[in-house]
Amino acid sequence: MGVISANYKVPEWFVDGKIGVWMHWGISSAADENRPNDGSHYGRRMYSPAREGKDPKDYSMNETLTEWHIKRYGPLEEFGYEDLIPLFKGENWDPDGLVSYFKEKGARFIMPVATHHDNFDMYDSFHPWNSVKMGPKRDTIQEWKDAAEKYGLKFGVSTHLYWSPRFFANARKYNTSGTPEAQLFNMQFDQQNYATQDSWNEHWYKRCWDLIEKYDPDMFNNDSPYPKIGKGKGLGIKLFTDYINRDLAENGGKQDVVLSFKDAEAPRKAFTYNLERGSAGGIKPEPWMWATDLSGGWFYRAGSVNKMSVAVMVGDAIDAISKNGVVMLNVALKGDGTLPKKQAAYLDAFGDFLKMNGEGIYGTHPWKVYGEGPLKMKDGRQGENKKNFSPQDIRFTTKDGNLYAFVLAVPKEDILIKTLKSGGILEKNITSIELLGSEEKISWKQTPKGLKITKPNSFPLEIANGFKINLK
What we know:
Layout: H1 2-7, H2 12-17, E1 19-24, H3 42-45, H4 61-73, H5 95-104, E2 109-115, H6 140-150, E3 154-159, H7 164-167, H8 180-184, H9 198-215, E4 219-222, H10 235-250, E5 258-261, E6 272-276, E7 288-293, H11 310-322, E8 325-332, H12 341-357, E9 371-372, E10 394-399, E11 402-407, E12 415-417, E13 430-435, E14 444-447, E15 450-453, E16 465-471
Parallel strand pairs: 1-2, 1-8, 2-3, 3-4, 4-5, 5-6, 6-7, 7-8
Antiparallel strand pairs: 9-10, 10-11, 11-16, 12-15, 13-16, 14-15
Helix pairs in contact: 5-6, 9-10, 11-12
């Protein structure tokens, strides 16, 4: 990836914008909302009947879902994944209203899923299984983009296409080659060895390039593997290089797009790392993306529970930003296209935080150190923090020569920021301190033990609160 690495420069809009909303919405969103847990992989798991005589209490998630599907919709031979598509109508979907709402809550970019693992394109595609020909019968990607442009947000797309031949491995025994359904289930490709199959890799490239050319996204997220140099004729690197070079040609040699994916082995200077459901142990040299899900399951299901509280989500977001991260919050829309209230509650709370503390978030950069406190974050994908922060957990950002300190839980006593002790790494003199979102005068004193901030009479928020430390 040397060619990309040499040219790749993360655009300012992404680094400064900090907050994005990812949207998972598709066929499985319209399955009965009271279904058992499907791990957001309904199409993969529903083709797994238990062996005859197996005790239901010993069923796997796949077997439980399959049994439920058969009882709810009928035998697999008669009601397959493709038969859910007519139920996916998006009848109350209002992209204009949703994007306006996302912006009001602090988002600076959006990123809908264009194709998930299920091989169904949410746009006007040459692939016959798409949302214009069936389901909602709308070009959802174009409508999301139109709304983003209307409200001044940057627009990204996410493709998960490379998973799809393997995703539908179990569906094949219930379908026939050469039928229209066979194309949905990728039966023309080798389900086990597709990564070395030229026809599949070329098909993947064409589908992705078609998406890029038609919708000209500001961000392209490849949420899956890709054809490698050794076994895929380098078509993954070709796609990514072509995407960046196309942008450079359009912008006089200046990069204005973001390329993101989850390949932990690729050089980080060649793309923006999607650290999905993970965290960073310290400040990263390259901007990265913390992607999390507000629904508890990526795709909507009524029984999904987000085990991360609102307060922890906001604290995790601040933690990521203090470490050179950008935040991407996924929402899972219902099949009718509406946003569930439980997820909106997270965006509402984050929006309230950003209205008061945005100057310490947008356009900021990491400081010398990310912060201090007892809660240590795991470094890497998965295993994101769900533990409560304490008032001793503090994170820093900096902008225009000033320092911002975020206290990640409401203090019950005076605040001591040990990192900012006199004679320490803070080289400039403090002239004043403000509590963002408050007009209360803040008393403080810098000592050899730390910067002591007298506890204000009240805090604007019951979650994290930010202090602006004005420096001389």
